[in-house]
């Protein structure tokens, strides 16, 4: 049992706000913890029910919702939840469920209350309301945020799906209704397919393509297509996707390498969302990805020259954040290739192919 308590203690001390607690407090918390296991899809807490512990994610992933069912946050290893309920009449304010097999440490309410009374930093951390304030705390306390933050944390809603045999007008209508800039195309599959996932109807499906609002402008409107065009006739031949457990930095590199602005996010084989360029820009306003996007928006060589200070700034920022030499090399190579490609495009526009 002593070894188990020690393991709990060592894990807690790796993540805020526990990383600033004195050893005596860590010992007390670890000794009081109960361990709970929840299978994928299991409800952890329902709105309004009594809550008697702070939940700490030891492993797995959890989705937290608002009372109206809207997704509020996605949590992974080292995150906590339940503090809002403990601070307000000890009733659950945000329902939560496991989105993969999850192990939780349950810290009793009485220990939580005493911590809030005796440790100002802990109290400040748990009392911050709203994802922006919490993100600010985490950014100040965790190094290399883009490298430790998982892509699923950027997903704000479930993906919009449509069978690839559908028509352009159906996809356009659905995207407008759902207010999304990308839609995933699916096709029926079988259990033997290593890319198949189980849909809500119990059938096996796989992601067969993606279409964005840009595709509709270029591949349909500009090409003289009609609303009766089948989606599989205009889809991208290759789907560039990323696993939910990959880092935000890996998502950025995937966009850089492939010059795309949308990435389907997969939980193993099941699509759980689509990450857009703007989602990553929120994390890194001066990121390499943002710079590449800026490169392709320039209409002249002079415009590209004006971006040179940004190239140097991107390099210095990566170094300051502790990126490995491989990460820096990949990012700078992608920027260099983008500059060359844009220069060639500008030359062809002026001189011809």
List the helices and strands and how they pair.
Elements: H1 2-12, H2 23-32, E1 34-38, E2 43-45, E3 53-59, E4 62-65, E5 71-75, E6 80-81, H3 83-87, E7 96-98, E8 102-108, H4 109-118, H5 120-127, H6 131-141, H7 145-148, E9 161-163, H8 168-178, E10 182-188, E11 197-198, E12 204-212, H9 213-221, E13 242-243, H10 248-258, E14 262-267, E15 270-276, H11 277-281, H12 288-297, H13 301-306, H14 308-320, H15 325-351
Helix pairs in contact: 1-2, 4-5, 12-15, 14-15
Q: Can you walk through the features of this model?
A:
Helices cover 43% and strands 20% of the residues. Helix 1 (2-12) crosses helix 2 (23-32). It folds into three domains: 2-142, Jelly Rolls, CATH 2.60.120.10; 149-246 and 260-276, Roll (CBS-domain); 285-353, no CATH class. Strand 11 and strand 12 (204-212) form a beta hairpin. It has helices at residues 2-12, 23-32, 83-87, 109-118, 120-127, 131-141, 145-148, 168-178, 213-221, 248-258, 277-281, 288-297, 301-306, 308-320, 325-351, and strands at residues 34-38, 43-45, 53-59, 62-65, 71-75, 80-81, 96-98, 102-108, 161-163, 182-188, 197-198, 204-212, 242-243, 262-267, 270-276. The protein is globular and about 75 Å long. It is α+β, with helices and mostly antiparallel strands and 353 residues long.
């Amino acid at each position: 049992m002593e070894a188990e308590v020690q393991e709990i203690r060592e894990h807690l001390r790796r993540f805020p706000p526990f990383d600033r607690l004195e050893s005596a407090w860590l010992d007390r918390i670890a000794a009081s913890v109960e361990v709970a296991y929840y299978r994928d899809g299991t409800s952890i807490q329902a709105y309004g029910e009594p809550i008697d512990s702070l939940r700490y994610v030891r492993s797995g992933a959890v989705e937290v919702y608002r009372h109206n069912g809207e997704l509020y946050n996605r949590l992974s290893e080292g995150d906590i939840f339940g503090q809002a309920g403990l601070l307000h009449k000890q009733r659950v304010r945000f329902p939560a469920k496991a989105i993969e097999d999850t192990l939780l440490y349950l810290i009793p309410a009485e220990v939580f209350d005493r911590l809030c009374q005796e440790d100002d930093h802990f109290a400040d951390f748990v009392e911050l309301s709203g994802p922006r304030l919490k993100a600010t705390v985490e950014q100040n306390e965790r190094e290399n945020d883009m490298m430790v933050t998982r892509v699923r944390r950027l997903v704000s809603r479930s993906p919009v799906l449509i069978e690839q045999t559908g028509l352009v007008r159906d996809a356009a209508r659905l995207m407008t209704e759902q207010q999304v800039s990308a839609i995933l195309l699916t096709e029926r599959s079988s259990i033997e397919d290593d890319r198949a996932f189980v849909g809500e109807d119990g059938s096996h499906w796989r992601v067969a393509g993606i279409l964005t609002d840009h595709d509709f402008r270029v591949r349909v409107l500009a090409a003289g297509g009609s609303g009766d065009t089948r989606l599989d006739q205009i889809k991208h031949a290759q789907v560039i996707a990323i696993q939910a457990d990959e880092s935000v930095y890996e998502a950025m590199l995937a966009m850089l390498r492939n010059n795309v602005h949308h990435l389907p996010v997969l939980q193993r084989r099941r699509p759980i969302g689509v990450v857009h360029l703007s989602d990553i820009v929120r994390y890194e306003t001066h990121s390499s990805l943002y710079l590449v996007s800026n490169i392709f928006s320039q209409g002249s060589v002079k415009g590209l020259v004006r971006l040179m200070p940004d190239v140097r700034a991107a390099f210095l920022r990566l170094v300051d954040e502790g990126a490995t030499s491989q990460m820096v090399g990949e990012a700078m190579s992608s920027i260099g290739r983008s500059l060359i490609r844009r220069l060639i495009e500008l030359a062809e526009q002026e001189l011809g192919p």
